[in-house]
Amino acid sequence: MAEALVVVGIVASIAQLFDFGSKILHRLSEFQFSVENVPKSFRHIKTKLPLLLHTLQQTKEAIEVGSVKDETKKVLHPAIEGCWD
After folding, report:
1. Which InterPro entries is this protein grouped with (predicted)?
2. Which domain holds residue 16?
């Protein structure tokens, strides 16, 4: 039962991170088109964030279909939760 709660927690956290990251990417795109000189740090985030979002989505789907080992789920849970601190 505890493992099921961990899985639900991981999937929910990934979904939240994906949603949050998508919103940031959208805002960065808006910012880029409204301002001529985008700071270099924002350009860096804008190029890396789509990869992170894609990886999070793939991880979430793999967990949902059960193709992720329990050991991996246990390691992922604190790492993903740490993103919200």
Report:
1. SesA
2. 2-82
